[in-house]
Design a protein that fits this description.
By secondary structure, the protein is of the alpha+beta class. The chain has a six-stranded mixed beta sheet, with helices on both faces. The radius of gyration is 16 Å and the shape is globular. The site of coenzyme A has 22 residues, from helix 2, strand 4, helix 4 and helix 5.
Length: about 190
């Protein structure tokens, strides 16, 4: 998956032990983005609990990394056995990195992961006045259907294919290699 991203940033799945980086990213969101991401004004303590819970629920989280810091993230969380084949997706990008294609790239990675896990329906909790998120979702109209008539958007995800599985594996191995190079060059600079 070829992403054109600002500042040589990269997108990869979060590794075990990167919870603090993810939490700090959500805590850095400006008040409007925080409200849009979490459906209302919430406290720092709420965010700390939310991130711990999310990552304990088999969530697949992709991060947008710049110099080892997460500046954007997309979360895919299964809704559980009672709602088989359904998951919830949510995206956040810190303000200075918004409107540079990061949200689109994160959504693309998340949709691929959803498809490969057999999710047929993705719920995106989106406030009715969040036009930017709705605009972003419309870019994927060709393969997905969205309903933003209410505050919740629902997305039909397509079936996995050998090619879609291969694309995810390739994106992961590329993410690992780039992260290693990034770490090495930052250690050399230090
Ligand atoms: C919604 C959000 C994830 C979008 O991320 P982003 O990186 O800004 O998105 P992109 O740059 O990929 O832009 C996606 C589309 O949004 C629209 N868009 C981008 N900037 C915009 C702006 N300033 N005004 C209106 N629409 C805009 C465009 O249609 C754009 O597609 P295009 O570039 O092909 O025209 C980001 O704004 C964000 O984190 N918001 C706060 C949290 C949030 O609302 N999360 C969604 C709840 S699930």
């Amino acid at each position: 998956m070829q992403d054109v991203l600002p500042e040589d940033g990269m997108i990869r799945k979060l590794w075990i032990g990167e919870t603090a980086k993810y939490r700090d990213h959500i805590l850095r969101l400006d008040p409007v983005s925080r409200r849009n991401r979490l459906g209302g004004g919430v406290s720092d303590d709420f965010i700390r609990d939310y991130v711990d819970l999310s990552l304990s629920l088999d969530a697949v989280v992709h991060g947008f990394f710049v110099n080892g810091v997460i500046r954007g993230a997309a979360e895919l969380r299964p809704l559980g056995q009672r709602f088989a084949r359904q998951a919830e997706a949510a995206i956040s990008v810190e303000k200075p990195w918004q409107s540079h294609g990061v949200g689109s790239a994160l959504l693309r990675h998340t949709l691929l992961a959803a498809r490969n896990r057999g999710f047929r329906l993705l719920h995106m909790a989106c406030l009715a006045d969040n036009l930017r998120m709705q605009q972003l979702a419309r870019k994927f109209d060709a393969e997905l259907s969205f309903d933003f008539g209410s505050v919740v958007g629902e997305v039909e995800s397509s079936r996995p294919t050998p090619l879609s599985l291969m694309r995810e594996i390739l994106a992961d191995s590329h993410g690992f290699a780039t992260a290693m190079l990034d770490l090495q060059s930052r250690m050399l600079r230090a």
